[in-house]
Amino acid sequence: MSEQENSAPTVEDYLNPLARPKLNPGSMKDLHSFEASESHQEKLGFPGGLVDDWHDVAITKMGDLLTKYRGFRVYMDSCVKCGACTDKCHYFLGTGDPKNMPVARQDLLRSVYRRYFTTGGKYFPKLVGARDLTEDVLGEWYNYFHQCSQCRRCSVYCPYGIDTAEISMAAREIMDTVGKGQKYCNEIIGKVYDVGNNLGFPTPALKATLESFEEDLEEETGLDIKLPLDKKGADILLVTPSADFVAEPHIDGFLGYAKVFHAAGANWTLSSVASEAANFGMFIGSYENMRKVSLRIREAALELGVKRIVFGECGHAWRVAYSFLNTLAGPFDFLDPRYPSPQHICEYTWDLIEKGELKFDKSRNDKYRLTYHDSCNVARATRMGDKPGGQFEIPRNILKATCNYYFDMEEDTIKEATVCCGGGGGLLTDDLMDLRVKGASPRMTALQNVRKEHGVTHMAAICAICKSQFAKVMPKYDFEMDNILSVHQMVSNAILLEGAKDPEDDDEDDDDDWIPPTPPPRPPRGSAA
Amino acid sequence: MLTTIYAILFYVATLTFVGGIALRIKQYWSIPAPLKIPTTPAPTTKRGVWFRMFKEVALFESLFKSNKWIWVFGMLFHAGLALVVLRHFRYFTDTTNLVWAWVNWIQPFGIYASFAMMIGLVGLFVRRIVVPRVRYISAPSDYLMLLMLIMIGISGMLMKFVSHTDIIAVKQFFRGLMVFEFHPLPADIPLLVHLTLVATLMIIFPFSKLLHAPGVFFSPTRNMVDNPREKRHIAPWAAELEKKN
Fold first, then answer.
1. A257-260 long-range CB contacts below 8 Å, 24 or more apart?
2. Residues 6+ apart with CB under 8 A from A318
3. Are B103 and B60 within 8 A, CB to CB?
4. Is the ipTM of this complex over 0.90?
């Protein structure tokens, strides 16, 4: 390895992304995201405001969930307070508020469970840390269970696999049931019911957007690349987050899928009924709502007569798709059994790459020195391909096939140990910006380290929330908002389409799209690519 | 009198311990896990899940990933306790019988194990006090549970290393209980402390965080097979929901 003086980090500028903060009790106790209004609540079948007998309703609901979800019951009982999870939550690392330690967050609910459902808590509440459900406790639930992104990092490290995501879902379900829901999540689910997607993007607007993308693609490639909507008899239904139609860098990824489909000669379509991959029903722990949102996809697939369902880049959407869709909206016996149902766009693309059906000019991505952020729900709640861990390998393989400079961040912040972007789980709302910025700090520190060490300029991700969150918080950490990329954006840049014009022909026009990498790339250490 | 009290105490403790855990297991068993939630990467086969569970239960794999200090103390305590408990089989079994011969063989290891167990327990107790994060999450019962185990260890080791008890009589007492015959129990303080705390521990086991022992086997993030696309998973109450609409 060549010893270049400024490529190796010095001790002073290396920061531990997982450094434990000093405890700062109560520092986040007043962070209160907006509560759902009556109309938001009622659309989802929840009471419009806090019901009079909320205390009894909450305890009854808790009892109900304890008989419906084995995980919830076992996790309420099993914690021994060993402390293994205490330094694993990115929100704790970023805020120092001890109630953001996974076990302390769970205990907000567990203390009430013990009081009402266990012998010890009924007779010796002080001894076992049990407490009555009071208005203060409910308020604490609201604030701290909306400071959990349900990323499951704690669950990896728990000796009993206790998953705080399950507990925060249960807590939110209880709060919705008593009429104390969160605006961001519930309003969005309502939009899905009313319009078909999270952004409330109506079909005519979607149609117009797709047409303008088609024009852009034609201008760029000289090819007639179609973005079909509601095309009956298509083979593949693409279900993708609606952010892919409106936000950057999501759109660039979306155009990447279109180019891949074009290169493969696939007959595909989007659906106006299922113009959204995300399913916020999961965030609020509501099986019924999650199922209702999922059934749109089944409906669209049947209606259009497709043979396959492919999901675009979206983290928790892939969790609901991969892990729950068959349960919620299956069986999918009407789809082509030769392909997994549903399939991830990365699985689809990687499969074509392995078969040699896609050609790339990697040098088109030479302006990027890239790393990859494993999105929490993809990493710890799903799989891609046949083998466990495919969810880590396949996106990386695609990046390595499409660009020359790829570097991983530190091992304890990637793959199953990945740190959440800070905006997942229904927290991607401006009223939680303080938390989002602080929660992103472990990831941002790891990114700064890899920038110092390898001159990394950009980070790619496969989650709509991650992309939006990073675009927003990166400027707070000395990055540009467009240092976050879509994985399929790299595919889009590098792919060689038959008959397409050379992008260098009209380089002048394109130049304003490319922001020069910051900081300027440094020489690779040893053999970089 | 003393013998009768302890006889009753141990019948009650055994019943509570066995019955309580059996009921708890039945309860966990009967509650469905409606969604596939293994923490991935997860095994894609049942056999793989058995292996994952073995690593979790025997080697504390997740804890090892998490925190080496807790792992070391936790391992010393649990492995030590396991050997010490096995060593105690000599009080309940006929060790001249070939089936129980291993109980004789294990005796010296059980003695070393008692030290390991105590180091582990004291380590966990000290951590609970000196690490602010762990102190923050500790309730009185969390300290008491450790203290109780430490007291059980100390009283047991006192009998082994300092003031011997008539263990022949102790064995006769317990072997007798098993066939409802009552033989006198020696009235030594360390022994009585030891037995009282052990019985207490058995009684609170099914009502406390000690349920982590059966609980870990029912943890859906650890015991589920990662095959949701291949095999449709549906809970009975969710299937009911489907019938409605």
1. A257/A312, A257/A345, A257/A349, A257/A488, A258/A213, A258/A217, A258/A225, A258/A226, A258/A227, A259/A217, A259/A221, A259/A225, A259/A491, A259/A492, A259/A495, A259/A497, A260/A345, A260/A348, A260/A349, A260/A352, A260/A358, A260/A488, A260/A491, A260/A495
2. A277, A311, A344, A377, A378, A382, A462
3. no
4. yes
List the one residue out of B38, B35, B119 whose CA is nearest residue B80: B119
Closest CB from B28, B65, B138 relative to A70: B28
Q: What is the DSSP string of B157-170?
A: HHHHHTS---HHHH
Query: Phi, psi at residue A509, to the nearest 5°?
Result: -65, -35
The single residue listed with the structure tokens 């959407």 is A317
Short-list A445, A515, A513, A514, CA closest to A474: A445
A27 touches chain B (CB under 8 A): no
Residue B209: domain span: 2-244
Asked if A263 and A353 count as a contact pair (C-beta separation under 8 A), the reply is no
Which of A402, A157, A397, A48 minimizes the C-alpha distance to B62? A157
Q: Where exactly are the structural domains of chain A? A: 38-180, 191-513
d(Cα A239, Cα A217) in Å, to the nearest integer? Answer: 20
Question: Which element (helix H / strand E) includes B149?
Answer: helix B140-161
Residues 6+ apart with CB under 8 A from A460: A370, A371, A372, A373, A395, A399, A484, A485, A486, A487, A489, A490
At the top level of CATH, which class does the domain A38-180 belong to?
A: mainly alpha
**Nearest C-alpha in B relative to A152:** B39
- Total structural domains in chain B? 1
* Contact call for residues A29 and A99 (beta carbons, < 8 A): yes
Helix, strand, coil fractions of chain B, as percent rounded to 5 = 75, 0, 25
Tokens of A299: 């409906």
Q: Do the chains contact at A163 and B39, CB–CB below 8 Å?
A: yes
Residues of A in contact with B142 (CB under 8 A): 80-81, 129
Nearest to A283 by CA among A390, A492, A395, A423: A423
Residues of B in contact with A383 (CB under 8 A): 40-42, 44, 226
State residue A185 phi and psi, 5-degree precision.
Answer: -65, -50
Q: Is B31 left (phi over 0), alpha (psi -120 to 50) or beta?
A: beta
Specify the residue for token string 């155009």.
Answer: A255
The H helix count followed by the E strand count for chain B is: 12, 0
Q: Do A159 and B66 touch (CB under 8 A)?
A: yes
B40–chain A nearest CA distance, Å:
5
**H-run or E-run covering B154:** helix B140-161
The encoded tokens of residue A422 equal: 């800070």
Q: What is the pLDDT along chain A (529 residues), one digit of tens a residue?
A: 444 444 444 545 689 999 999 999 999 999 999 999 999 999 999 999 999 999 999 999 999 999 999 999 999 999 999 999 999 999 999 999 999 999 999 999 999 999 999 999 999 999 999 999 999 999 999 999 999 999 999 999 999 999 999 999 999 999 999 999 999 999 999 999 999 899 888 999 999 999 999 999 999 999 999 999 999 999 999 999 999 999 999 999 999 999 999 999 999 999 999 999 999 999 999 999 999 999 999 999 999 999 999 999 999 999 999 999 999 998 999 999 999 999 999 999 999 999 999 999 999 999 999 999 999 999 999 999 999 999 999 999 999 999 999 999 999 999 999 999 999 999 999 999 999 999 999 999 999 999 999 999 999 999 999 999 999 999 999 999 999 999 999 999 999 999 998 776 554 444 445 444 444 444 444 333 3
Q: What residue in A sits closest to B137 (Cα-Cα)?
A: A104
Question: Count of H helices and E strands in chain A?
Answer: 25, 7
Question: Which chain A residue lies closest to B134 (C-alpha atoms)?
Answer: A83
Question: Which CATH number do you get for residue B33?
Answer: 1.20.950.20
